Amino acid sequence: MADRSRSRKWMRIDGRFRNRLASKEISLAEAHLESARRNLAAYDPSTAANRLYLAVERATVALTIGLDGRRSKDHGYIQMAFDDLCDRGILKPYGLRGWLAHQYSLRLEGDYGTWQGRSARLNERLLATRLKEGETILHASKQILLQNGIIRR
If one looks up domain 2-147 in CATH, what number appears? Predict the structure, then answer.
């Protein structure tokens, strides 16, 4: 099904499985985004930050599977793939570069706090803004996959 290419962190995905796997990943992304909305509405920004990161990470994985035929489970490689999608002009607006890495730092703050305790940066207002950006990224990702015939409605 998949063979290793160029790096041990990336797996090539056989064409027969690409569409199905990309569809599964975008569905997971939508579920994580919905969970982030519910967590934020319940005044739980820590869990919302975690779920929002997972939503955009899954959308990035869906795009790299669908467009490039490769997959990684390594957070760092997925963050680099997100930035690459931005650099290539696939994910727009162009100011998104670094968004996923920043969300990862918010996720870690939510999960583990900082050396001084819980972070003052992680609050409902910040997460509401990030959630809107995440919704935009997920919508754009889904549209790209639909336009390229990788997933169906």
Answer: 1.20.120.330
